[in-house]
Amino acid sequence: RRYRYPFINCTHCGPRFTIIRAMPYDRPFTVMAAFPLCPACDKEYRDPLDRRFHAQPVACPECGPHLEWVSHGEHAEQEAALQAAIAQLKMGKIVAIKGIGGFHLACDARNSNAVATLRARKHRPAKPLAVMLPVADGLPDAARQLLTTPAAPIVLVDKKYVPELCDDIAPDLNEVGVMLPANPLQHLLLQELQCPLVMTSGNLSGKPPAISNEQALADLQGIADGFLIHNRDIVQRMDDSVVRESGEMLRRSRGYVPDALALPPGFKNVPPVLCLGADLKNTFCLVRGEQAVLSQHLGDLSDDGIQMQWREALRLMQNIYDFTPQYVVHDAHPGYVSSQWAREMNLPTQTVLHHHAHAAACLAEHQWPLDGGDVIALTLDGIGMGENGALWGGECLRVNYRECEHLGGLPAVALAGGDLAAKQPWRNLLAQCLRFVPEWQNYPETASVQQQNWSVLARAIERGINAPLASSCGRFFDAVAAALGCAPATLSYEGEAACALEALAASCHGVTHPVTMPRVDNQLDLATFWQQWLNWQAPVNQRAWAFHDA
Asked: Which residue numbers delimit the YrdC-like domain (predicted)?
């Protein structure tokens, strides 16, 4: 009955978290309430000996969800809809596909014209695209093991293992994110196509991925040539999870959430605490006793759509775990949306320094006991609120779970133009040069700065106009990338400069170099670094490696 049915499932597979409206996990409290069981499915559902006994999403072509194809006035259903999508993908077209936790935009990952069209329509000129492979043949064992787990995450692998992909999938990078089919519809597509597909998030630039048919048809009509949709609603948006080949988690979402994480020894008597997270790449966390429950990756809280999803995800998580917080913890930045929400919850609140939270999360990840004593933590990121309103991003801290002492780190350098410094690497190179390199205009590495109207910006830095000081490791990386010429004048995605710099360094297998980064008065001596690094003439990949090594 269910041969080639795109919504086949049993008690061991199929969607759960993305279709639940409330607990308990029974069909009337899921989106499947809209699909009354036919007699055959009802018999299976009620039979204790059947594999579909109490499988809440159970359905068949007779009574369950169905596929639909929509494209410029064309319309097809079920198998015909699937075949229409396959035909379009074979022709090099872009298809929006509704999955378990949201929409993907798909095209043939071997077809450079299709990929270029997708990038142009989505205004995504350089950000790497995830790829779905029919099989994991030829990939490293560690990657295959991760790809074939029930979570089925995106795994980063070296490009050499997937030579059939066109060059524009992950430009200027050494790695590409690959995944295998993770639901029946994807299996049907890849079985027939037998080629790698780009599977990138189905959203407008800067907006959350679509989850409803109406939203997708409205938002993606200028990107997709056709839509492969279905009538099973998505309650919770869920991005694909991303892990490194080593197993290191980069984005924890589909396949892992809402499983609880075990906290280290010592947390047994911790009362229920709601931790709101920071505003960028937000996740929240429910802590009670020896368990922590992280939400899925939600995104940036500046977006109204993400804020709505955040509130719905929190409501569902609290419902699933019967969780009523006694305390609320939030970032020390008073202007964060999450900090404002904390103040509105009428509960006792606790602020935590951004980088203390980073360090404490690392301790918990590695099962460091609550009373395990102090550790030295290096917290390296873009920017976060530090002590006394200082902007941190490259710090050496002495920490335990309760306390944080600042020991040193990178010197504070102007963020030239404020938020623009995170988007235009040459601004950070200018700020570094004005601070540490008196004769900077004599170096060819500063060409990216000298091509700009830098003198006006230099005066603004000197006068402290829209140029707050920050000890940001991310902006330091941007400056070095600008000096090596591996970063565009304006970044097209967050971290683009650092990713390109890392890829350059990874192409060099180590080299003897004169570059150092000594410590002076508990700060790294960047004047010495820049003098040595700028005066050392070597290939760009060796200089990138020397920077990382120093």
From this structure: 79-255
